[in-house]
Amino acid sequence: MAIVRLNKGFDINLVGAIQGDEIAFTSPARSVAVVPDDFHGVIPRMEKKEGEHVTAGEPLYHDKNDEAIKVVSPVSGTVKEVRRGERRHIDAIIIAPADDRQVVKHNLGGNALETLVASGLWVMMRQRPYDVVPSTSVRPRDVFVTAFDSAPLAPDLDVVLGDKRQYISKGIEVLGGLTDGKVYIGVRKGQSIDAPGAVVTTFDGPHPAGNAGVQAANIAPVNKGDVVWTLDIVTLARIGELFTTGTVSHDTVVAIDGEMVQEPRYVKTVMGADLETVLKNELTNVAASRIISGNVLTGVKVEKEGWLRAPYRHVTIIPENSKPDEFMGWASINPNRFSIYRTFTTWLRGLKKPVSLDSRIKGGERAIVRTGEYDAMLPMDIYSEFLIKAIISGDIDKMEQLGIYEVAPEDFALAEFADTSKLELQRIVREGLDKLRAEMS
Q1: Residue 311 domain-assigned?
Q2: Are residue 377 and residue 241 in the same domain, yes or no?
Q3: 402 and 390 in contact (C-beta within 8 Å)?
Q4: Average pLDDT over every residue of 42-52
Q5: What are 216-266's pLDDT values in tens digits?
Q6: Is 40 left (phi over 0), alpha (psi -120 to 50) or beta?
Q7: DSSP per residue over 180-244, as a string?
Q8: Of 224, 245, 266, which residue sits at a domain end?
Q9: Which residue among 225, 245, 265 closes a domain?
Q10: How many domains does the chain have?
């Protein structure tokens, strides 16, 4: 097993981590929602209307540009509401679950690609370049699977996997048949996995070592003209389960943690479940809490009445603004304040001690100054500061030369946290990728 040691990056050790791996079972979700924005690159065209019955695994909508790509319902029930926003943008499709537990059964005797696309699992993968749902017409050079999540307070994917671990080898077999190259699986130091047919690589280093894109960049970088797929080990196991049983299970294990949670824990629920069911009465102070579906770096802010977003196996709750009247505000010289750069004396007590951080940005946007901050947080062989400048200026030639084809917004999330210029790096990268994709199509 090859070992890749990453020196760049940083582990943010927040208060509120889960102790142990016990899983609590939740009561059935009162409502379930599918949010189209979770599947970037798919333009929804509805197949179901409000009031219609839908079976678990049955399509709710397909991609306007590729009707084969389906997004399916995670539960059996009734389409309660198709919630729309500005310009009739579909914000969420809300389903009232039924008790029948019906599920779509797939025929496994046909084309593997067609079965995978029809199952709805296709939209759980991502394609480099552009970090979008993969095109069904392009065969990938390689497939990269990450078996761990290194983000702050992230769940242990071994716990999330549970008994689905038995389907990993079948998932490797299926994806191996859809690529001309190899299936790579990245594991963390000390983690073991039985993955016949895959190339297993150990990654030793801080976050973002768990990002599939970072792993790809350190194994076989994506160059212009290359297409690779990325996914996590849980999705790989779901694919294996589909091609073993003929059905897709949308049950999931989610980490509920953070400083504002009374008892951080794992919860078994269903993808898209309403957060009131998942959280129950675990928040210490709802009014003073920020609820994030996902981790603190890449997750999405949601309300308590919202839903668990599909790409995430994690709900983080941190203080919203714990010190609104702090003396000198963001310029405070409080010796207890956390800093990556040893600006404050807290580093003397060690960076492994959990720290308390709230949702404040602590400063406003400033001009980009070449400090090497981005490069220090991104273990990829690119000039990240110059790439960001090229994206802002809209220089496509420079973007290509500087490695935009191998990055995704999540790769810049840690750099955004560390950035003294307070730029929204993930938004900038997303806009750059979308612009490049539009130009190339």
Answers
A1: no
A2: no
A3: yes
A4: 97
A5: 999 999 999 999 999 999 999 999 999 999 999 999 999 999 999 999 999
A6: beta
A7: SS-EEEEEETT-----TTSEEEEEESSTTTT-HHHHHHHHS---TT--EEEEEHHHHHHHHHHHH
A8: 245
A9: 245
A10: 2
Q: Residue 81: which of 71, 92, 89 has the closest Cα?
A: 92
State whether 214 and 77 are in the same domain: yes
Judge whether 367 lies within some domain.
no
Mean pLDDT of the chain: 92
Predicted TM-score (pTM) of the model is 0.94
Asked, for residue 153, whether it belongs to a domain, the answer is: yes
User: Which DSSP state fits 15?
Assistant: S
* Same domain membership, residue 168 and residue 29: yes
Run of H or E residues at 436 = helix 425-440
229 burial class (0-12, 13-18, 19+ CB within 10 angstroms)? Answer: buried
Identify the domain containing residue 424 by its residue range.
Answer: 373-440
pLDDT in tens, 307-329: 999 888 899 999 997 666 666 66
Cα 269–chain centre separation: 18
Q: Which residue has the tokens 């970037």?
A: 40
Helix axes 233-245, 112-119, angle to 10 degrees: 110
Q: Return the amino acid letter for 414.
A: L
Exposed, middle or buried by CB within 10 Å (0-12, 13-18, 19+), for 156?
A: middle
* Dihedral over alpha carbons 108, 113, 117, 122 (to 10 degrees): 110
Residues 174 and 169: their CA atoms lie apart, in Å, by 9
Judge if 221 and 72 occupy the same domain. Answer: yes
Residue 118 lies in a domain: yes
pLDDT at 139: 97
Handedness of CA 394, 396, 398, 401 (dihedral sign): positive
What is the SS3 assignment for 400? helix
Cβ neighbours for 188, distance < 8 A, ≥ 6 positions apart: 147, 148, 150, 202, 203, 204, 209, 210
Q: Please, which residues have CB within 8 angstroms of residue 1's CB and are 6 or more apart in sequence?
A: 200, 201, 202
Residue 49's Cβ-count burial label (10 Å; 0-12, 13-18, 19+) is exposed
pLDDT digits (tens, 9 = 90+) for 95-123: 999 988 899 999 998 899 999 999 999 99
